[in-house]
Amino acid sequence: MKSLTVKPAQGKLGILVVGCGAVSTTFMTGVLMARKGLAKPVGSMTQYDKMRVGRGADAKYLHYADIVPLAKLDDIVFGCWDVYPQNAYQAAMYAEVLKEKDINPVREELEQIVPMKAAFDKNYAKRLDGDNVKQNLSRWQMVEALRDDIRKFKADKGCDRVVVLWAASTEIYVPVDEKVHYQLSDLEAAMKADDREHIAPSMCYAYAALSEGAPFIMGAPNTTVDIPAMWQLAEQTKMPIAGKDFKTGQTLVKSGFAPIIGTRCLGLSGWFSTNILGNRDGLVLDEPANFRTKEVSKLSTLETILKPDVQPDLYGHGNDEDTQYYHKVRINYYPPRNDNKEGWDNIDIFGWMGYPMQIKINFLCRDSILAAPLCLDLCLLSDLAARAGRYGTQRFLSFFLKSPMHDYTQGEEAVNNLYQQYTMLKNAIREMGGYEPDEEID
Q: Which residue in 111, 139, 302, 308 has the fewest CB atoms around it within 10 Å?
């Protein structure tokens, strides 16, 4: 075992969440309840998973916190921004994800979490109509105002470190533009010129966070930090970034089940995925321009796991061009379901001598219940990465994310296979814990 080079997790960790909706309030309530011993943080890898360190006679199976210095739940302090002014207790009650009896024991703490005014542009989320917003600011002024918010929160709450997590709605799709998004100087110039077409509000949050020495996590499919200019800023500030889009329901199933088809050398003709959900996320995604952002994220999963160019007999069939299987994703806004999302997958496979078979998966999940532990893990592990001196894109966090970041300018491919992602996660923790990163990704 090598000597540890990770700074200890001393003092308070501030978690500043963009958005105070269903996911955020479920996350906050669960952490506050867990640290009172009134609930269990089920689904959280950092709280439950055990992994092997060392080999042979030296092998031990340990919780992450026994390998690396993670921040404790007792040391977390929450803050947030939102377009609606309701405090976290009111927002949690409104979201109707959790029962009142599971919110009331921490009501007092939740009531003290009052959203700061959001940096918001209605053109990026037309279905949202809140008035708790920073008025009449250019993009650069948004950045400066958000930096002030982070500094003030850190000072007021006595936090040693801060992590910023985007758990707000999906913005409209912003295509990567080389003239604006490839160089940090061009991005800054566009912010100062108030270029509202190429600079999404989320980019202002990311820029502000990194500039204030806070890791930034993109929990939606927005292109926010998935651009070379932000990679440069992360390198410059020596801060970790991670994204994009929490991998909660259908994509989790897809990234875990597609390897079964691939490993067993079965063929795939088509994979049709559809979802119904009714929370604020569903409302926003009912706008075609916002759905486009999500669609790009959800469609990217299969193509890096089941590759037509590697196995043309198995995956070179299905669509109009007959170059690969047919892959379709749909999301439907259906208010009666609220946060209880339903994902249907119809998978048309074929086997010996080309004979067809079908697999049907019906996942009746609770979106925020699955997302809350991801929020916790991403925040704790991003804070750990920062203390370990790791900066830039944290590929080891792809396990938690639907559309993992990768350097597409160099032809790098995202790793979407859940089991390969898990190996990357374990190897990174081994390495930060002073052990050999001893598993192969192949």
A: 111
* Average pLDDT for runs of 10 along the chain of length 442: 76 98 97 98 98 95 98 98 97 96 98 97 88 96 98 98 96 94 98 97 98 97 96 98 93 94 96 86 71 67 90 78 82 86 94 96 93 98 98 97 93 93 97 94 82
Q: How far is CA 142 from the centre of its chain?
A: 23
Q: How far apart are CA 109 and CA 60, in angstroms?
A: 38
Count of CA atoms in the C-beta half-sphere (13 A) of 410: 6
Report how far Cα 79 is from the mean position of its chain's Cα atoms. 18
How far is residue 58's CA from residue 55's CA, in Å, rounded to a whole number? 5
Report the candidate in 412, 393, 410, 409 with the shortest Cα–Cα distance to residue 401.
393
Which 8-state DSSP code applies to residue 8? Answer: P
Please check whether residue 342 is in contact with residue 276, taking contact to mean a CB–CB distance below 8 angstroms: yes
Strands (E), 351-431: 356-364, 392-393
Question: Distances in Å between the alpha carbon of 291 and those of 288, 367, 437?
Answer: 5, 17, 39
pLDDT of residue 322: 61
Q: What does the angle CA 303 – CA 425 – CA 204 come to, to the nearest 5 degrees?
A: 75
Block residue for tokens 């109009």:
320
Q: Report d(CA 400, CA 415) in Å as an integer.
A: 12
In terms of phi and psi (left: phi > 0; alpha: psi -120 to 50; beta: otherwise), the region of 172 is: beta
pTM for this model (two decimals) = 0.94
Look up tokens 């990174």; give the residue: 428
Distance of CA 222 to the CA centre of its chain: 10
Strand pairing partners for 159?
12
Report the candidate in 288, 250, 290 with the shortest Cα–Cα distance to residue 124.
290
